[in-house]
Amino acid sequence: MKKKSYIISLIVFVTLIIGGAKMVDEKQKKDAKKNLTPLQHEVTQNCGTEPPFKNEYWDNHEPGIYVDVVSGEALFSSLDKFDSGTGWPSFTKPIDDNKVEEKQDESHSMTRVEVRSKKADSHLGHLFMDGPTPTGERYCINSASLKFIPAKKLKDQGYEKYSKQFGFATLAGGCFWGMEDIIRKIPGVLKTRVGYTGGSVKDPTYEIVKTGTTGHAEAIDIVFDPSKITYEMILDYFFRMHDPTTLNRQEGDVGSQYRSAIFYNNEEQKKIAEKVIKKVEASGKWKQKIVTQVIPASEFYDAEEYHQDYLKKNPGGYTCHYLRN
To answer: pTM to 2 decimals?
Structure first.
């Protein structure tokens, strides 16, 4: 009898816990719905559809993930996003099959497959079979049902699990125009931004950095796909695109802002950087000693917009960078 009573008590306890959790979850969803814009509410709660080409994320190319605007549940990754030409965010697959549900939709005199979030039961969009190979699937999703979390903010905003999809590197090796032009074309690189780092002045501008008095280096901030390219492979490219033996200089560009440096984000990156430097020195490709700094990453300040993708905007513009064998 005692054993039976214990089991009954345990069942009651577990039931109460589950019931309490559901009540908390429902309250959170209810509170979240109060903060929705009219469009977000219409789309997620009433199966509405936003206008094509006039929504927040259809043309967003930033690395990161897309979460349910109601519950915050992770739904899609930028790694699976593609331009379908339809004017709505399109994905080849969910970030996890267990995050979404697919239901037959007979509305509007059509038979379609509706896509809903599993946790909040938000209407997201529809699934079509006109996507890219190999699956042919296209998850056509409303921007209004999503919230975008940039790759660099995943850990801070509680999505560390998904941050492993993205790799980061910060490098300096002379004028950032030429370096970015090479790096952004490397297979597996998702995004590049040029800017200033390693100095002592807050919110530096090009006008002050170019004096060489702030301690900042002209640098490249890189986001890459670790499934396609490794941090070590990026460093291999790095030592081919600039001369790492000239102190505070890259050909005609002279000053500490043009120094060679690897700004590591963790101890693993530091070890890899030191390993690659030893490998490059042992190769005999450079007759002089490598002077590349290996230092901890510090705050990165984006350079002015006209510097971003400069050689893409100005073909034939100045550069002293090229890939060596």
So the answer is: 0.81
Say if residue 38 is preceded by a cis peptide, omega within 30 of 0.
Answer: no
Domain count, the chain: 2
- Give dist(CA 197, CA 218) in Å, integer: 7
- Annotated catalytic residue 47: no
Confirm whether 175 is a catalytic residue: yes
pLDDT, tens digit (0-9, with 9 covering 90-100), for 64-77: 999 999 999 999 99
**Which residue range is the domain that position 288 belongs to?**
166-313
pLDDT tens digit sequence for 108-124: 888 999 999 999 999 99
Quick one: CA dihedral 310, 195, 166, 226, positive or negative? positive
Half-sphere exposure of 140 (CA within 13 A, CB side): 20
Q: Which of 140, 217, 272, 303 is catalytic?
A: 140
On whether residue 17 sits in a domain, the answer given is no
Active-site choice (65, 172, 175, 297): 175
Whether residues 133 and 206 share a domain: the answer is no
Do 174 and 145 lie in one domain? The reply is: no
The length of the chain, given as a count of residues: 325
